[in-house]
Fold each of these.
Amino acid sequence: MKTIGSARRLVRSAGLGVLRHLPRTRLLVRKAYWARQGRSYQRLAANVEVDERLVFFESFGGRSLSCSPCAIYLAMLGQERFVGYRFVWSFKGAEKTAEMRSAEALADPRVSVVQRGSEEYFRALAAAKVLVLNTRLPEYVTPKPEQVFVQCWHGTPLKRLGYDVEIETTNALNTTSELADRFGMDAAKWTYLLSPSPYTSQHLADAFGLPKERRAEVILEEGYPRNDEIALAAADPTQARRAQVRKLLGIPGGKRALLYAPTWRDDSYQAGVGYTFDYLIDFDLLRRELGEEWVVLFRPHYYIANHFDFTAYEGFVIDVSAWNNVNDLYIAADALVTDYSSVMFDYAILRRPIMLFVPDYETYANDIRGFYFDLAEIPGPHCRETAELVRTLKDPEGYWARYGEAYDAYVQRFCPKDDGHAAERVIDRIWG
């Protein structure tokens, strides 16, 4: 199986632009492609033996060394029982793959790096005893019966997913029903699904169409390994990690940091561009009212393709879009502003203020995706205008007086297992 060349990528991009408007044709083309690729993969896999001591890792489709796959990998490196193991990491694109081959975290001699989509990549998929990913496997790759597929996923669901989406829309190259079917294809391959809470267990299982009779054996409700470092940093009385990260980010001493982390909108896709975002907070107002005390860390979802120029806000807005480890940003920040992103659940482990900026709430709830529960259950103000954020940030004591009790209940509901030791428990469950 070969990596797609640049010329083929251009042809493919143009073809996808046409197919976006022809759903029936798109589905036929896609199924034919999956069938052809599936046969090719099966031929390759049939000649590759499964290595009991080989583990395959991938995070966000090869975009980064991060999330729960990375947390599990790092924990395994430190355990004596994995001394004789080998690890493979997959990264997307030749440039990223080359960059990661020299990354310090991958310097262990047991580790190799492959480019996603290359023949090396498919051979690693076929050879690894355990596959650890936080997004879906390619539709045409089916693990062998003796392989173990660990689906880590990458967040606690607020927005409806997969089979739970009730609003019929077109998401880039998928209708709602097409995307749901792709979720179901992935669930059929799972050996394990990681979860931090009963809430997440139920909704991820429902969204992916995991049959009820399989749930007890598949779901590992041990916490999200990716959140271990957040919990441990929060519990550290010296706050050494926080001080280190703030220095690396360039946050001036004595100033507080506001992490602004908006997510993408399913209906804002532009062919040839990607997902665009049009709901920014008013940085002029924030700087005018809070610039003496605060800086803003700006971290949009990686799907968002806009170019944001913060030259005019130098010294006040720090663009951290490319920062690899989002946990660093949580640990550094004194408060969070988001909209519909699952960052609101991970950040709650730190027990610091959370605020929502949701000027398009009705549209998102009724016409785009919908939610699993009423946003009123999320502790903190739900703001339509930046001025409301300013008022909250100027009155931190008022925040806790108003939302403190609800915040405790929120943490207990959504992250009761995120205690800093999830990776250890998950490893014990998988490897015994």
Amino acid sequence: MTRIGLLDSGLGLLGTADALFNLAPDADLVLAMDPDFTPYGSLSTDTLEQRALHSAGVLAEWEPDAIVIACNTASVQALEAVRARYEPDIPVIGTVPAVKMAAGTGQDFAIWATPATTGSEYQQNLIDSFAADLHVAKVACPGLAEAINAADLDKIDTAIEDAFTQMGPGMETVVLGCTHYGLVADRIMAARAGALTVFDSPMPVAKQTLRRIGLEPAGVGEDQTGTGRVLATFASGRRVSLPQALAAYPAGKRLLAREA
């Protein structure tokens, strides 16, 4: 039986968990969130590495076939440390914003991310590597991930409006540079009059995870019929039930239905 562990500061791992159940509906998942130390963007690199290693250690006890760092900020700052600890025994997959996919359209685009990721050398290197000939608006979204963790819809909508004002007129493509943001992609689309294309990372990350462990993805479907379950959920190392705040999001409802 395939078993995959996912870690993040909070609900940002939902999108990747949902994508994994789409592509590997019989896989079991173990989730490690870290609410005592959220938001990760406010932590020093050393502290963030320690927290990612702590969550990875919790997941490793379940002998997973792979560990996914389902968080952009943690991937930027802690991926190498977690890989050094666990590979090659356990493949470790990071999360990369879909900059390359967006650049492939040839259109200017915006990257919405946490302030820490927005100002990072890592994000700038992605832009330089894949979108050097395009105009890329770097949009910091303070408070949006936290509002999503709390399922505070008013604060979510306010943060989305603030992000659009930073983009300026005429830009019709957005890359979601924080895994939390995909949970409110429907609200982002609804808040913008006219066409808007949104690129997110969970499905590519899920496909890469399955490639690393030698599994062929199943067909993508909303019903996600399969035997896979969320075997366990942890909050800063404590065994917990899935938070009911998940019910605010379609992916969250599907995950709650999978809880063992």
Amino acid sequence: MDFRLSEEHEALRDSVRDFAREAVAPVIAEHYERHTFPYEIVRQMGKMGLFGLPFPEEHGGMGGDYFALCLALEELARVDSSVAITLEAAVSLGAMPIYRFGTDEQQARWLPKLLSGEALAGFGLTEPGTGSDAGGTRTRAVLDGDEWVINGSKAFITNSGTDITALVTVTAVTGTNPDGSKELSTIIVPSGTPGFTVAPGYSKVGWNASDTHELTFDDCRVPAGNLLGERGRGFAQFLRILDEGRIAIAALAVGLAQGCVDESLRYAKERQAFGRPIGNYQAIQFKIADMELKAHTARLAYYDAAARMLAGEPFKRQAAIAKLHASTVAVDNAREATQIHGGYGFMNEYPVARFWRDSKILEIGEGTSEVQRMIIARDLGL
């Protein structure tokens, strides 16, 4: 076992780290305060090839792997999570379903723009009133001739209302299975389709420079050929997407946790109290040491899950463990970093205030911590 990075992965990590520090850090606080989407940052990430990292070159990707995406997410989140979640959702939840389950025609139409960052896609799974119970989907799609007619709504959908959002993939009830359960399928809905309405952006606690909306579908008609994957397999398809996405969210959480260490170290060396830097006091030293411990172990957890996935081995439990542990660590480290900064930690001009606000959603999005525990317990045979 060797957890050291290859030369290619090292080079990618370093380039994204430099980009985050030089291009993201100087401007993201203003976007966060104004709740504006950082289009210029997204454009630059597209030029760097970050949106195409885990996709083959024949589709316009970079020919890398999912672990490369995770490394990029970690480095971005060390500076800002809004930018990191924009990339994570664009790749894991937006482009990946098209790549995994799309027809040749669907891939040829959508992937080039999605993998270049020229366009974004949303992932329409969660609904108002259902939350973690994705099987409780109420949105319905009825086949009328050669068109699907969709009615329903989705909630908390990332990258669904930007000026460059091209489509949203939507899970909908398309019939009834022989055992009486709902038949769930996935349908591509292009932006601007009549009957598809994007509500104003949410007023959120964190991720303020990320795009999140509620979506409604009122007799929204799309071609029958917009069915993504096999009819009736929509829920199973998205379960696979979510398993992969949990590794990516774990990487993002590790980045936030490590960013808290970075900022606390910097502050502890500069801030004077009682005649010397606060980093000279054991109370602060031990806090930062524990934060580094947590970030390091969380990193190993997502490394392990990613390695298993890339090797073609079962990884559902390991992905849940990585996501559960890393999100918990992110919240813990953000709380401690805020405490180390004292009153300044409560001021939005300091990154740790942003980290504190952004950390909590990591215990909720892409499967709550309780859902992760359910997955782990079931995989253990309980």
Amino acid sequence: MNSSSHSRDIPYPDIVPIDEVAVNQRVARLNSRSIKKESKVAALEMALSMIDLTTLEGSDTPGKVIQLCHKAKEPHADMPDLPTVAAVCVYPNMVSVAEKALRGTEIHVAGVATAFPSGTATLDAKIEETKQVVGDGADEVDMVISRGEFLKGNYHYVFDEIAAVREAAGDAHLKVILETGELQTYENVRRASDLAIRAGADFIKTSTGKVKPAATQPVTLVMLEAIRDFYYKTDRMVGMKPAGGIRKAKQAIQYLVLVNETLGADWLTPDYFRFGASSLANDLLLQIVKQKTGVYQSSYYFSND
């Protein structure tokens, strides 16, 4: 069945050919740009405000999640004017803990759902889990697509699944994780991005952080271009979330340059761009202190999470 014979919004996006050499060259070119001190401080603080502070381990406890929420609310005790992070992202059984700890703040609670990280569960189970995390207080849902179905070419299945989870999430924002490390080609990344966007994603996200490679700048550029092209056609802004492997402030700033040059300044806000990270916050704080005081603070001043 081709897309013209289907009643919904193009669940079979056209294949967009991707020039891998050109993608890598553009990323390298943008990475060569330098940022001056005043702009660098602003960029570091912007990146901090865009973090989804994340703990997704089997050993997670309520105490660990509560500690993470305290860090989200007050990234650095000696710098109360710093922005808070955007969200705290946890497993479904910890959503209610995070919601209680963050109540009264503007920090979002994100719950992973749909059998994260594998995505191998029935649609009914995925819908039930989505409704559970929203019911427990998540105002953002991070779902994973069925990569096996996608790689078999069963694009209708993937489209329908995302659309069903979108409906189950209600008013919560939906971030759709493509797990790009398993998609094999840039063309697949682009097609999966287009599917997710057209099925109702509020954000598209690179990775669960459980598969390598996780976020890379070339893959992120391919996804940003899908967002750009969709915006040109529809005027609907979709967010982007690279996740996994982004640990250093320098990397974060490179991603911000990538976003600005591909989508423009309107996307440089936590409403449309996030970092999925756990250790990135500490390096951003380290670099902010260095820029403001001229000296590096000891890593002992930062919580190890």
